[in-house]
User: Fold this.
Amino acid sequence: MGNSYAGQLKTTRFEEVLHNSIEASLRSNNLVPRPIFSQLYLEAEQQLSSLEAGSRADNEEEEEEEEEEEGSESSSPPVSYQVKPPPEGCCTTDGFCQAGKDLRLVSISNEHIEVPSGFLLVGAKSPNLPDHLLVCAVDKRFLPDDNGRNALLGFSGNCVGCGKKGFCYFTEFSNHINLKLTTQPKKQKHLKYYLVRNAQGALTKGSVICWKGAEFRGRQSSASTCSSTLFQLPESSGLSGSTSSEPLPPANPSAPAGTQQTAAAVDHTPSTAAFSSAVYNGKESPKKQLMKNNLSALTRPSVLGTLTNSGPPKKRHKGWSPESPSSTETWNLQLNPQASNRIKNDGGSLSSLPHSALVGPTSSPVVGSGEPVSVPDNLMKICKAKPVIFKGHGNFPYLCGNINDVIVSPLLYTCYRNSQSLSRAYEQYGASTMQPISEEMQLLLTVYYLVQLAADQVPLIEDLEQIFMRSWRESHLSEIRQYQQAVPQAFPQVPSQVTPVTSAQLPWLAGLAASSCNDSVHIIECSYSLAEGLSEMFKLLIEGKLMKTNYVVIICASRNRAIDSCIVITGKYQARILSESMLSPSDYQKEVNYQLVTGKVETLGSFFSTLCPEGDIDLLLEKFYQENQGHISSSLSSSVTKPTAVNGAGAAVCTSYETERHQIRPFQLAVAQKLLSHICSIADSSTQNLDLGSFEKIDFLICVPPSEVTYQQTLFHLWHSGILLELGLEKEHLTKQRVEQYVMKLDAEAQIKFKIFLQNSMQNPHTLFVLIHDHAHWDLMSAMHSLYPQAELSTGLVDRLLNCREVKEAPNIVTLHVTSFPYALQTQHTHISPYNEIHWPSSYSNGVDLYRENKKYFGLSEFIESTLSGHSIPLLRYDSSFEAMVMALGKRFPRLHSAVIRTFVLIQHYSAAMMAVCGLSQMKNYTSVETLEITQNLINSSRQCPSGHGLMVVLRIPCIPLAAVAYERLYNVRERLALEDNFEIILGNPNSGITIGKHFVEQLKIWQKIEDVDWRPQTYLELEGLPCILIFSGMDPQGESLPRSLRYCDLRLINSSSLVRTSLEQELGLAAYFVSSEIHTEKAVVNDVLESDPEKLSSTDNEDEEIATEGSASEKRSPMKRERSRSHDSASSSLSSKASTFCTESSPPQALSNSTEEATNNYERQKQKVDKGAQTTISKHLPPVTEQLDMKQNIKSTQVSITSSSSPPFSSSSSSSAPTHNSFILQTSQCSMTKASKQPPIVFLPKLVYDIITSTDSSGLPKSSSLLPYHSVMWASSFRPLMSKMMTCTEQSLYYRQWTVPKPIHMDYNNRNEGRMDTFHPRRLLLSGPPQIGKTGAYLQFLSILSRMLIRLTEVDVYDEEEININIKEESDQYYHQPGDMWPDLESFKKMPFDYTIHDPKYEDASLICSKLQTMNSEDRSMSRRQEDMYTCRQTTRMRLSKYAAYNTYHHCEQCHQYMGFNPRYQIYESTLHAFAFSYSMLGEEIQLHFIIPKSKEHHFVFSQPGRQLESMRLPLVTDKSEDYIKSPTFTPTTGRHEHGLFNLYHAMDGASHLHVLVVKEYEMAIYKKYWPNHIMLVLPSIFNSAGVGAAHFLIKELSYHNLELERNRQEELGIKPQDIWPFIVISDDSCVMWNAVEVDCSGDRKSDYTWTERNVSLKQILQHIEATPNVTHYALIGMRKWSSKTNSAEIKDPFSCCHVHDFLMLNVDLTQNVQYNQNRFTCDDVDFNLRVHSAGLLICRFNHFNVMKKQIAVGGQRSFHIKSKVSDTPVSISPAQYICAPDSKHTFLAAPAQLLLEKYLQYHSHRFFPLSLKNYSHPVLSVDCYLNLGPQIAVCYVSSRPHSLNISSSGLTFSGLLLYLCDSFVVASFLKKFHFLKGATLCVICQDRNSLRQTVVRLELEDEWQFRLRDEFQTANAKEDRPLFFLTGRHI
Assistant:
């Protein structure tokens, strides 16, 4: 690896001078980058690289054939050529001459053809017959010699068909043989090959005719666009194909004529593969030509723009013209290279193709140019590998001979071409100034890159792309900066073409770079063509001169033409990896299967048997079995079998085994809430894609991959979550069959279950169905591209089901994709909006622990972190001895797939390790330290626990046939060693359940306390504590979770040639793990003796004891700092160094003597500290030994087992002795499973994967992150920025959305609408989080809280408060009505006294209104009242909305869509604005109101005929009766509640016709109209914008009375009496939500006995009931109770009350004509109005059997009034004491209405004006003509000054104060003199201005009885323009 160029460069003076001179020449041009040496080659950071997924086609269409068809030495555009019409009657068929004779080579190859002397047979190519050669005889003088020279100009030829001779012009000849050309006929272009006779005498195609310069034609460099098309197979193969092409963008119009058009189509950037895609050795794919006419089928413009290069095109293509730069050539995607991308069906997508076709076909030789190159016969035999040839620049020669032993790939060529096309991101700098990186520089950079690679590394295409990108950026940095600063000119100057590295310099520089790498890169320079270089390379290979060489770079460079190049991978390791990476997963499986079935692997087995000096392992095993049959089983299994037997007898058992209860962790709850908020935001958006208000319940279906274990695991989670019962989907007695209805395995039977799901969703529109797609990255195959739908239905199933039209269009289905690897769902064509992605939150933010978790998650980043130096123990490792053996065997058996070799070696290692542990110590030499460690800990684990708990080892073997072989072999070895009761071997196949032995099932049942006789484990989680090797097979893990007893995750056999990010991360995801975060911090006390020999502490056994968490004991014990360069090969770490000594063949027994003796001594010393019981346990665990050496080694390992208890002591119920200070304690019951569950598993990786995972790029991101994210996507451009380490999940998503596109086989491929953003599905979400972190629990919790939210949406908080002041109401024995009366009796009602006391709980802090009756018992009022400044929330209760509820704007249902005006079938309702004016004398001016009337509501109004002027609102008659009609118009004043106001009365009115008018302020008109387009609006004049509710009530009443007059006049003309017009209106609060009726049953024996029930009824029923009241027009106000859950019988005993009414009332506008609401009021205006109405002698009736529920609404209403300073905008809290001030003072003025300040001040500080009144309820304040709230501690007495008004008798009352508020002319001095006041009583007079204040004092003669002082004058804290109110206070004399 460490090839430092700097170190080698300066070894001699000559090289230094040479280097400096070259560098100087490079620097001589201003556009040249800084020296590329220092930039890339001398960088300290090594470009670690390795192989990646072969995502290119196994076949690519070569350009050579077309170049030969179309090549032209002319640089001008093609001239259109008119073909001379053929003579009449002649033959015009392609392939025949005009005489009708067949000229095709295939037809006449065996015929005898006479060839005149001096003539040669040649093959001509017809553009119409690309697959045929036409035979011609041509005079050889007119053909070139071998050097391409000496051909005479002109032509002479004969037709071999009809025999016609003497054609002197090629034009004439081409007409005769029907070439039908569209361009000027040229012999050089159409005469292609010499024809020769083979051994059988048949005429065949020979070498290419070497026309001068033909093979050196400038190729179409970056000018060509590579159009990608799916490989189309021969029809006989039975596979269906599909094509697509990507045309070029239009030509750049500003490019000068003749300039070369450059572009690249992003969609075909070779995907991430290592240089790993084969073509059919360059031959066009079968039937390719059939596709040529269909290439425009699925097209879209390329993402990249066009570039111009100065200079003419070097070659033109067929169809090229100045107008159209697009090329008709295509190139084929590889037959799906990689796993999930699969034009595959794992079953065997390519079974019809011969195996050789995938590696190198025998039948299709490479079509090349120049002389052919013969591949030597014994190449593979000699080289032990197939060389992989990567085409580079220029033309590639024709290969012939043994082409099966080489592989040709176009990947590098494509990379070069794509790197010469600039991305859109750089177009802004100007296409002319930004030149792409030159070909010479590309090749030089490639050489530098290869030089840096270590011997065990494989080139990675991403690395090369990034190097090109960085180099290009560096070279254009100055231009980019200049361009950003300067204003671009209209015609930027085109710089002269510069070449940083000339073709002459190139071989020198390449050779110089390669000189430093010990021949790992060999440069071959050829002067004529690549053919000679390839020939030389093959010769060197055969001669064995390239043994040390991994890469051969062949360069053909010349000054006067472009370079040709290719790179040959000759390193055995690299060539093997790259060639294997070209196989698709299904082909990989087939290849392995083929090798197993045909017995090719038997050579491997026989080789293994020769390694063992004692003979075959099987013979050793058999011998061992025979010798030890009797006693070994008892000794080995004693630890397992005995405890099980004594459990019943009450012996100590392991108490550490506990199954985790289902509980939601804080993280899962946070994620569930994030999901819920996303659902709510979809519902809240204006698009109305999700109407949450219309759903009543939740249903769901979980889709999982077709893995039986994953399916059972999901069922298990679902069962234990209790979600089905919580959602009400199932009843208490849940069966497994019922649970299975909610989980769907994506297999052949899925469609039936899915159909039922769809039917349910259609039949239940009010149920929200959540479709959860778990493990969502698993199958993203497009259903259209499934090659074998019959063979494997599951392929493309996700697309067929989840993307079907029914799911997309159903308004009640939400799709949630859940995955750990979301990358494939984050492409340019994804269905999921970036706003609908939910990422698992990080646990830390700025060092703060966001979620308190008692467990720590170990995922990929934590595993990588553990490999850094300074950490206690690396969790990721590789096994160098295993890798070395695999590499050696790979060279010995080149034709065997490396997966087969790796598997057989590993099985051998496991077998030998098992034998070694069982006493065959010689077998330690035939395993690796790592495998021995795993096996020892596995076998010993169950002995360390009294209950027999043990460890799990996962052995990952992706290839199912190999997994079966491994299972069989290990099972056999285990049986021979009598270990069948010690641990289980389980074959985990995704398609089947788990099978384990009966003995182990019984153990699991005991541990888990299961009594079911038929129970079998169905998930891996249920194997917790079982000592076992789980052979985990299947190409991809499918979401299976592993138990906490997992200790080792052996991934040494994963397919390391298939490297894409998803594949790598999901393999490592198997080991993801939660460990308890409460790690014991105490370090173990290490004995002095043991510290003196630290290596002993780190022997193999001790590995299992260390906790891989910082701060654990193992960190203290680690003998050295672990550095990445060596520590992660655990063979080289201290822990294995000692063990490796006795595992190497060379070490004699004496080598161990010292350490063994020392170990024995330690053991002796240690033994004294251990009690005897424990000591016997040790000896019992020792296997039988035969040699002293083995005895010593066993003693040593046992000793280390003892010392290992120095790790933090985990709780155990049967410790044999208590810990003592400063010594090691032997705990015989140290349960391995318990320890395993407290530390993450150890993961073993292939070296190649390990290097990728642990290396980082320049941004610090793991190398694996920059790999292609998924098999079925590809990079949109080579010119993409690097991902950054600082990227959040969201930023990564946006990166992939910008830089990846799906391949045609991806299900999102067709999801694109150019230039539009509506490709996202509105109800589709993506949840991503690390593997095994708890996503299932999170989405189940999400379902739970979503269900609760839906229930919450159908619930409201309603006020639930008892009526106040009940104790003040005088109990009367007289009842005016019976409890069961339906309506009040008018005469009886008139006799009822009016109850002045306010009982509405919202007025709890309002002043008590005194009447004479109440003065006696009101003393205790203060005791029950709260303090004025003490604010407590009003009491509410949660109520489920009934079907008669009123709703806000969030409710949408089918029934009320039209009512609301949101029905999608209709346009938004049109409305018209109508002015309506009337005069009102009290205001002294005309009032102008505006109505907004929707078209649908115009029938409620009367308009004048000619001008459509609004005349009146229609009113019904008193006598009208209709079941579906509400007579009273309803007015709802509202402010600030356009969303939350309950204006949807459709359901409350039970669909009855009614007139509903919203009364809104002018500034809110637009927003209310937007939310309620179908409601009538009454818009108040702008002068009322800052007014309170009193103004709205005032105008409603005045308008209604005015309208009543208009209607009476209008209908009088129709003969209707004025008194017959309906006089009532309803005034309703905007928070009335439901209405109830009390039904009284008086069927008891006595009259006073009754029972009552309350039920929810419609508002329609209540209003119709009230409207039907006898003599209803005699009542002025009718109201109802406010609902309370605490209502008692006494309150409803009298069905009617004469008292205050609030919130919802019917107002008789006729009777109350002369009683007005006070338009200035903000609070208590209804109390004020009630008192006025009563004093006017009018009846107020409250129906006690009806009540209204009021919803708590947190916004709008009174809360919309904010009192703030007028001077500054900064919000400062202003206390009510500051609301008034002295006139003319410098007090801060407030921006609030004067009336509001007055009311608020009096509410909180009236005791300043009325000190005597405080808590003096016997002496109230006299309030004349108004009720103002003076606070709860002051009582008021209301009197009206109007003549004939009803007032309380005040004869016995003495008042403590007098309040005169804006008193009118009815208040006179004589009226006031009737009342008596206490001495010192206070007076407060309030007027509009100071002048009227003085006039009032004079007019009412107040100075006679009241004393005034100048300082007693105040005003509200308003500026003069805001018209403050003025106060004058005085004292009674």
